[in-house]
Amino acid sequence: MASRKEGSGAAGGGFGGAKGKGKAAAAGDSAVKQVQIDGLVVLKIIKHYQEEGQGNEVVQGVLLGLVVDDRLEITNCFPFPQHTEDDADFDEVQYQMEMMRSLRHVNIDHLHVGWYQSTYYGSFVTRALLDSQFSYQHAIEESVVLIYDPIKTAQGSLSLKAYRLTPKLMEVCKEKDFSPEALKKANIAYENMFEEVPIVIKNSYLINVMLWELEKKSAVADRHELLSLASSNHLGKSLQLLMDRVDEMSQDIVKYNTYLRNVSKQQQQKHQYQQRRQQENIQRQSRGEPPLPEEDINKLFKPPQPPPRMESLLIAGQINTYCQNIKEFNAQNLGKLFMAQALQDYNN
Amino acid sequence: MTDACSAQPITVRTEGPICLSCKMAATAPGAAPPAAAPPQSPTATPTAPAGSAPPAAAPTPPAAPAPPPAAPLSAALSGPFPGGRVVRLHPVVLASIVDSFERRNEGAARVIGTLLGTVDKHSVEVTNCFSVPHNESEDEVAVDMEFAKNMYELHKKVSPSEIILGWYATGHDITEHSVLIHEYYSREAHNPIHLTVDTSLQNSRMSIKAYVSAPMGVPGKTMGVMFTPLTVKYVYYDTERIGVDLIMKTCFSPNRVIGLSSDLQQVGSASARIQDTLTMVLQYAEDVLSGKVAADNTVGRFLMDLINQVPKISPEDFETMLNSNINDLLMVTYLANLTQSQIALNEKLLSL
């Protein structure tokens, strides 16, 4: 029986198999340096997407596990049903509570440590994800979001990444102030919005035995997608998504520029008004009339609203992710093409 | 008699009024078809708890030989059980079972749970499972069916197409309690499958077997239950295959931990694998040529197919294709870098 240390946070009562000392979650600085995932979780996530996630919808689920020192161990997970309009009375919280209670009965770790989501060609940097991850991280210091890319996985290698919000971004989200000044003060660039946490996969001995059994009994894989030279389809789609984002970005930039122009125009107008006022007052004084009262300038010229910068930050982050993915994909394909060339030369 | 016993893989395990012996099975052939006609019904199996005094208790042999009645029974079975007695199993189910075994309560010798999956015209596919708390002692077995129903409802919300297909148990034998539990499950599912995963590693193997139950015995008198084995096939989705290959690597690392490798490393390892398999094939060809191994025509035909699959391209065509592909990739990389520097610039300008 595996004996584990339990992380605190949720119910810390010992029960059944999992014995150990409870560990208090450290206050601000217990960053997670490594995420350790059980093989079972990987298989479950793959299965969930394969069965329920065809098409452009994302599939989501909850990760369960515990925290050991600065490592987050994910030992189990369960999927979330898709959002459908006709089940408006479906209570997500209740589903989650029921599931966790039932899992507790069979000694599965019932502590919530994060969530997972599938992604389409790497597009996951959205406001929704940011909000969800923020609420998770606010409640549970060490939570992560696992992003599973099924299309990249189908090309030959498992693509699973764990992300957390950087502490700086957490601060900004707490304030809920996304104006340009606030962001400038916090000094956030799109690069330090998310931090990626390295993942390792761990299996118990018994699972290893089972894997050996499987290896003996099942047929050898006959499709080696990893070495396929065809790349144009994937590249085409990625570039399409990238172009869409760049368009959005340029629109956003235009909006920001108009705002800046408006601000400067307003400054000029204020200045002109003040000057005119002064001149008039001088004239009146010279004629012996009482000066006009000073009016509150700010009431006359309402400053334009600064556009929230969060959107553009997210778009920049997304564009960055796309570019990263494209570059990795290209590097792989170049390697494969050069290999093919070497083989061809050898044959000739 | 023992040779016949070991040759036939049918496992029977009951006790009490449901006694079976070679003789009884041998005399049943005529009676078997009408007995098997009603599909397994709870009335046909008065499985009494082990405490009742058996009228004609014979010591239960762990494995009884498979007599001719197997044939008419299997005819009755293949009706409601499509796919020719083959169960298709996904690896995630096995991983779940092993994991729940590792987390069992103190003192529990084995764990049981429900199998979920789909049935279609051609096959029965088990894709999911969850464990169910149960208590087992010498005299009785109690399964928390309420829990099982609740979990099934929750699972149905996520995957509405999965139905209860049967149940699993860890351990290497079928016990009397299994018969009882099987009866519980036959109320939930039609012709439930029973899967055993041998976590006690008998014979240094983790044997994974599947069974279906069939009633047997003399009609009118005490009836018994026989578990007939099914073939287990492992199926994978493509992505599952890739996932399993990755997870398998932990078998080789000393502390069972692996990280995810970078892209070029993966290409490198995939090509190394192909290189190994090619070496094996070449070795085989050499052995055949030098006479060490007898030539096999099927393998020869596969080799022919393999060689013919390499496309014949003239060097110029290949050059053009290669160059255009490389140009495409380089251009895209350049564009990606350009975009990245653009947004970096944008950030800098904003913070001025």
Automatic annotation (TrEMBL), chain A:
Q: Where is this region: Disordered?
A: 267-311
Q: Name one Pfam family in it.
A: JAB
Key words, A-Z: Cytoplasm, Initiation factor, Protein biosynthesis
Regions of biased composition (Low complexity) lie at: 267-285
| One Gene Ontology molecular-function label | metallopeptidase activity
Q: PROSITE patterns, per this entry?
A: MPN
Does DNA-binding count among this protein's keywords? no
User: Would you name any one GO CC term?
Assistant: eukaryotic 48S preinitiation complex
Give compartment(s): Cytoplasm
Q: Does the keyword Cytoplasm apply?
A: yes
Task: List all membrane-crossing ranges.
Answer: none
Q: Which GO terms describe its biological process?
A: formation of cytoplasmic translation initiation complex
Described by its record, this protein's role is as follows: Component of the eukaryotic translation initiation factor 3 (eIF-3) complex, which is involved in protein synthesis of a specialized repertoire of mRNAs and, together with other initiation factors, stimulates binding of mRNA and methionyl-tRNAi to the 40S ribosome. The eIF-3 complex specifically targets and initiates translation of a subset of mRNAs involved in cell proliferation.
- Subunit composition and interactions: Component of the eukaryotic translation initiation factor 3 (eIF-3) complex, which is composed of 13 subunits: EIF3A, EIF3B, EIF3C, EIF3D, EIF3E, EIF3F, EIF3G, EIF3H, EIF3I, EIF3J, EIF3K, EIF3L and EIF3M.
Annotated family: Belongs to the eIF-3 subunit H family.
Q: What is this protein called?
A: Eukaryotic translation initiation factor 3 subunit H
Native organism: Cyanoderma ruficeps (rufous-capped babbler)
Q: What is the lineage of its organism?
A: Eukaryota, Metazoa, Chordata, Craniata, Vertebrata
From TrEMBL, chain B:
Could you tell me one molecular function GO term of this UniProt entry?
translation initiation factor activity
**Record-linked SMART domains:** JAB_MPN
Comp. bias (Low complexity): 42-55
Out of the domains of life, which is the source? Eukaryota
Q: Where is it mainly found?
A: cytoplasm
Its GO CC terms are: eukaryotic 43S preinitiation complex; eukaryotic 48S preinitiation complex; eukaryotic translation initiation factor 3 complex, eIF3m
The UniProt keyword set, sorted, is: Cytoplasm, Initiation factor, Protein biosynthesis
Where found, per UniProt?
A: Cytoplasm
Annotated MPN domain ranges read 87-217
Which segments carry the region annotation Disordered?
29-71
Where do Pro residues bias regions lie? 31-41, 56-71
Assembly and partners are described as: Component of the eukaryotic translation initiation factor 3 (eIF-3) complex, which is composed of 13 subunits: EIF3A, EIF3B, EIF3C, EIF3D, EIF3E, EIF3F, EIF3G, EIF3H, EIF3I, EIF3J, EIF3K, EIF3L and EIF3M.
Q: What is the documented function of this protein?
A: Deubiquitinates activated NOTCH1, promoting its nuclear import, thereby acting as a positive regulator of Notch signaling. Component of the eukaryotic translation initiation factor 3 (eIF-3) complex, which is involved in protein synthesis of a specialized repertoire of mRNAs and, together with other initiation factors, stimulates binding of mRNA and methionyl-tRNAi to the 40S ribosome. The eIF-3 complex specifically targets and initiates translation of a subset of mRNAs involved in cell proliferation.
Q: What family does the entry list? A: Belongs to the eIF-3 subunit F family.
User: What is this protein's name?
Assistant: Eukaryotic translation initiation factor 3 subunit F
Q: Which organism is it from?
A: Cyanoderma ruficeps (rufous-capped babbler)
